[in-house]
C-alpha cells in the first residue's frame, strides 16, 4: 500500500488560517471558484493544517459532496492549500483540476446543495443530524434546509 506523502505546511497557511475554536468557517452557501461548500472546506483545511481546527473536520461528508462532484481528491486539495495559496490561487487551481462541466451543471449542483433537506441526505448523515440539530440549533428555530443547520449553529441566521 502506498503511503501518503508528508505535507509540508507553509508559514503562509498559518497566517491565512482561522482559529476555529474562536470563530466559524464560512457558510456552506459561500462560493469559491463558483462552487458552494468549497470556501468552507478551505477554511477547515487551513485550520486543520495550522492546528487551529477546534472541533471542525476537513474532508467531512459535506466537503466530500463538493470533492466528489468536482472529482478532486481531498488529499490533493489539502496539499495545495498547504502551500499557502490564497483564495484566488485556490480558485484557479480548482477550476483547472475540477471535472470539466458546463456552467449550468455547476449552477444546478449549487442549487441542489442549497435546497437539500435533511431528508435528502444519505442515511448516516441523517442519523447524525437527528441529535446534532437538537444539540446545536437554537430552540424554536426550524431547519428547512441542510445548510440552515450550520448557519443557525454559527449564528448567521
What does this structure look like?
This protein has 157 residues and is an all-alpha fold. 53% of the residues lie in helices and 3% in strands. The protein has helices at residues 11-16, 38-50, 61-70, 74-81, 87-97, 103-115, 123-136, 146-153; strands at 31-32, 35-36. The protein has a two-stranded antiparallel sheet. The longest helix has 14 residues, at 123-136. It is globular and about 45 Å long. The chain starts with 10 loop residues before the first helix and ends with a helix. The model has no long low-confidence stretch (mean pLDDT 94).
**Quaternary organisation of the protein chains:** single chain
Walk across the major sheet and give the strand order: 1-2
Shape annotation: globular
How much strand content do the residues show? under 5%
Largest sheet: 2 strands, antiparallel
SSE-based structural type: mainly alpha
- Helix/strand order: HEEHHHHHHH
Question: What is the tally of beta strands?
Answer: 2
> Kindly state the mean pLDDT as a whole number?
94
Number of helices: 8
**What is the CA–CA distance across the termini?**
46 Å
Helical residue percent? 40-55%
Taking pLDDT < 50 over at least 5 consecutive residues as the criterion, the unreliable ranges are none
What is the alpha-carbon Rg in Å? 16 Å
